[in-house]
Amino acid sequence: MSESTDTQTYLPPALRPALAKLGIQHLRDVALHLPMRYEDQTRVVPIGELLVGESVVVEGVVDHSETLQRPRRQFVALLRSSTDDGVNHLSPRLSLRYFNFYPSTVSALKPGNTVRVYGEIREGYYGLEMVHPIFKKANEPQAPSNKALTPVYPSSAGVPQAALRTLATKALKLRDVTAELVPPSILQAQRLTAWDTALGVLHSPAATESAIALEGRTHPAWRRVKFDELLAQQLSLRDAKLLRAAETAPTIAPTGSLSTLLLQRLPFKLTAAQNRAVAETLSDMNRGAPMTRLLQGDVGSGKTIVAALAALAAVEAGYQVAFMAPTELLAAQHFNKLSHWLHDLPVTLTWLTGSLTAAEQKAAHASCAKGETHIAIGTHALFQKKVSFARLGLVVVDEQHRFGVEQRLQLRQRGTSPPPPRGEGLGERELALQTNSDQGGTPSPQPSPPGGGSQSLAPHTLMMSATPIPRSLAMSYYADLDVSVIDELPGGRQPITTKLVSENRRTEIARRIYEIAQTGAQAYWVCPLIEESDKMEIELQNATALYTDLVTMMPNVRVALLHGRMKAEEKADIMANFIANRVQVLVSTTVIEVGVDVPNASWMVIEHAERFGLAQLHQLRGRIGRGAAASTCILLFADKLSDTAKQRLKVIYENIDGFVIAREDLRIRGPGELLGPRQSGLPSLRYANIEEDIDLVEAVRDLAPKLEHDPSFNKLAFLNRWIKNRVEFAKA
Ligand code: ADP
Ligand code: MG
Question: Distance (Å, rounded) from C-alpha 322 to C-alpha 207?
Answer without folding.
Answer: 60
